[in-house]
From TrEMBL:
One of its GO terms (molecular function) is DNA binding. Keywords: DNA-binding. Residues 49-121 form the OB domain. It holds the Pfam family tRNA_anti-codon. The lineage of its organism: Bacteria, Bacillati, Actinomycetota, Actinomycetes, Frankiales. InterPro entries: NA-bd_OB-fold (IPR012340), NA-bd_OB_tRNA (IPR004365). It comes from Parafrankia colletiae. This is DNA-binding protein. It comes from the Bacteria.
Length: 128
């Protein structure tokens, strides 16, 4: 990612890495600075705290009731935040930085948190 490299090594990496790789590194650093763990490290049925950038917001019907699904990306992976009974949450929109914590459920290689506690982060916190 950049740790343990000399100034010249970091500069060379910045010049040769593609934009997506550099953006992912920035997101991982911002997530860590927010006190969150990497999404790739989330384990089934464990409590976790994650932070990242909202990639998408979707309203789905679950058992006849609405649910808001938010894909949160931190540069290492994606966690889907599911808010049961909600169609909208003010401030949660694509591109927004969010920190969430709760119990993780992994099913079919999809990492999910149902009704997590969340915090809207300042724009500069996980987007660079």
């Amino acid at each position: 990612m950049g740790e343990g490299r000399s100034w010249l090594g970091r500069r060379f990496h910045q010049l040769t890495a593609d934009n997506q790789e550099l953006e992912d590194e920035d997101l991982r650093r911002a997530s860590e600075a927010a006190g969150a763990e990497p999404m790739l490290a989330c384990r089934d049925r464990a409590e976790a705290c994650v932070a990242g950038s909202v990639r998408s917001v979707t309203v789905r019907a679950r058992s006849g009731a609405p649910s808001l699904e938010v894909d949160l990306y931190d540069g290492s992976g994606t966690v889907t935040l599911v808010f049961l009974g909600r169609k909208h949450i003010a401030g949660i929109e694509a591109g927004r930085s969010v920190k969430a914590s709760g119990r993780v459920v992994v099913r079919d290689e999809r990492t999910t948190m149902f009704n997590p506690r969340y915090e809207l982060l300042p724009v500069s916190s996980t987007s660079a």
